UniProtKB/TrEMBL annotation:
This is 20562_t:CDS:1.
Length: 46
């Protein structure tokens, strides 16, 4: 990665989104949202 600090920041933001979504949002697509975010995190870790 050219900017590992930005990758870390992106991952932290996605994780915070997951926490917020899981805690405060009651929606039918909640698991789809979390799965999409987890996929993005995995892509950033490669």
């Amino acid at each position: 990665k050219t900017h590992p600090e930005l990758t870390s920041l992106n991952i932290n933001i996605l994780l915070l989104q997951n926490i917020y979504q899981s805690t405060f949002i009651e929606e039918a697509n909640n698991s789809e949202f979390l799965e999409q975010n987890n996929n993005e995190i995995n892509n950033l870790l490669v």
